[in-house]
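Write out the 3D structure for:
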Amino acid sequence: MVNNLEDGKMLPLVEEFYTIQGEGYHMGKAAYFIRIGGCDVGCSWCDTKYSWDANLHPPVAAEQILENASVYPAGAVVVTGGEPLMVNLDYLTGLLRQRGIKTFLETSGAYPLTGKWDWICLSPKRNAPPVGDIHRQADELKVIVASGEDIP
């Protein structure tokens, strides 16, 4: 977990934005995206390497993130990263759900699951396999095939 953020009341926020989900089961639906900083999985094909170092992204209060998300009509928040499970997401998802906002997670599963989720997209990586039983809780599986070795 990222130091000094264990309670999840402050989160290393890389960016947040309102958009249309571009992939997976919820493709085409509006959502508010919250990108959390920090990732040590290190995928060579990653398109968000700028999110890897959580120290580059100042901690933002979960309440402020909630207020920012509440302005938009989607009613759904996608929490992504980096690897969002490097921080405790119990507090943030609790706030969102109290407001009636659905919570969606995109994760490699390399860290223990925190938070309460309406939808979990699991994208396991060969170099950092999922921990615990997140694979049993996942609603969607997204597998990146970088080479033929990834298929088995």
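The helical segments are 62-70, 90-98, 134-137.
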